[in-house]
Amino acid sequence: MKVEGAVALVTGANRGIGRAFAEELLERGAAKVYAAVRDVGAVADERLVPVRLDVTDGARVQELAAELGDVELLVNNAGVGSAALPLSSSLDEARRQLEVNYLGLVATTQAFAPVLARNGGGAVVNVLSVASWVSLPFLATYNASKSAAWAWSNAARVELKQQGTEVVGVHVGFVDTDMVAALEIDKVAPEAVAAAALDGLEAGEPEVLVDEFSREVKAALHDDLAQLYPGIEAEFAATAGARARPSPPSLLVEHSEVISAARPGRWDRQPRGGKPEGARRWAPAMLGCFWCRRARRPGGWRAAASPRAAGWCARGS
Ligand SMILES: NC(=O)c1ccc[n+]([C@@H]2O[C@H](COP(=O)([O-])OP(=O)(O)OC[C@H]3O[C@@H](n4cnc5c(N)ncnc54)[C@H](OP(=O)(O)O)[C@@H]3O)[C@@H](O)[C@H]2O)c1
């Protein structure tokens, strides 16, 4: 699908990846871009058309689809994230993430599918994540919501093809937005996500892997339990062990200080740059060793399962 001349709607377009999508669509000559947001006052760019939308409000989703009969491209971007361990995550928070990240995407796609069909087919771009494919223990409920959205997207692609609507799934690791402002870790620029996604859309690709992290994880899926999870498990054990150990070695002291200072909690709505104490605590456990970084690679994950894994992290080699 060509973006030039198209009418698009982007959910959560007031900040982060959604705002980058809206701007990139305009750059590429979109005829109109609806910024579907919870607070229309949060849309400062006068080139955008702000419309009120909370994706968890089913009635409003239906109403908006009835109001906006000219949409040809739907970008399902709105999302929420938080850190949560599998056994202690709040069910309310798990439901919130499913409501926004999964069911919100389903609701908007179902509501706008007839609009897209009437306008010649068009496309749906779903902003998913590397977390659709790999379950990092500190993101237990977020992973599940993104995995559900991915699974549903693949089914929807098959059905929507019947009406000539393309579905593009976009997968990426960490992106420099408010959602993960607390993490000191390599992040992709939101503009790069939007550009890669729209390049993929215009090239007719069903899936876009924005960064090396998502490409590596996807490449390891054929053997994920052997290639991905031993490394994740080793890192999890190292960080959990560091918490209990009374006299950890030098760099683990640094680890354990931030570990003990950190608590699982919401990441979103934290001010950019306002990194809470303990922010670095999440990095090693999510990506493998923050210092050695070898564990980010599929081979590295496997290697990280070796007895040396904890040593790597302890030495920061
Ligand atoms: N940042 C990352 O590392 C990363 C990586 C992979 C995928 N993603 C995905 O990328 C998408 C955008 O995230 P981001 O990083 O740009 O996060 P962000 O900066 O926190 O922005 C999230 C956006 O979603 C909107 N939103 C949240 N709940 C909503 C609801 N119920 N209805 C409508 N809008 C809602 C927010 O609106 P308000 O301003 O009103 O809260 C905001 O515009 C999400 O789907 C996220 O899961 C992010």
Topology:
Elements: E1 7-11, H1 16-27, E2 32-37, E3 49-52, H2 58-67, E4 73-76, H3 91-118, E5 123-127, H4 140-161, E6 166-171, H5 190-202, E7 207-209, H6 212-219, H7 224-227, H8 229-244, H9 250-261, H10 282-287, H11 298-304, H12 309-315
Question: Can you characterise this structure?
Answer:
There is one protein chain. By secondary structure, the protein is of the alpha/beta class. It has 2 domains: 7-219, Rossmann fold (3-Layer(aba) Sandwich); 223-315, no CATH class. Helices cover 46% and strands 10% of the residues. It contains 12 helices and 7 strands. It has helices spanning 16-27, 58-67, 91-118, 140-161, 190-202, 212-219, 224-227, 229-244, 250-261, 282-287, 298-304, 309-315, and strands at 7-11, 32-37, 49-52, 73-76, 123-127, 166-171, 207-209. The protein has a 7-stranded parallel beta sheet, with helices on both faces. Residues 11-12, 14-18, 38-39, 42, 53-56, 77-81, 100-101, 104, 127, 129, 172, 174-175, 177-180, 268 line the site of NADP nicotinamide-adenine-dinucleotide phosphate.
Which ligands occur here?
A: NADP nicotinamide-adenine-dinucleotide phosphate
The CATH level-2 architecture of the largest domain is identified as 3-Layer(aba) Sandwich
Would you list the SSEs in sequence order as H and E?
Answer: EHEEHEHEHEHEHHHHHHH
DSSP strand (E) fraction? Answer: 5-15%
CATH topology of the largest domain: Rossmann fold
What is the overall silhouette?
A: globular
Largest sheet: number of strands, sense, barrel closure: 7 strands, parallel
Give the neighbour order of strands across the main sheet. Answer: 3-2-1-4-5-6-7
> Tally of extended strands?
7
The overall pLDDT, averaged over residues, is 82
The percent range for helix content is 40-55%
- Low-confidence stretches are 245-317
Q: How far apart lie the N and C ends?
A: 47 Å
Integer tally of domains: 2
CATH class placement of the largest domain: Alpha Beta
The CATH fourth-level homologous superfamily of the largest domain: NAD(P)-binding Rossmann-like Domain
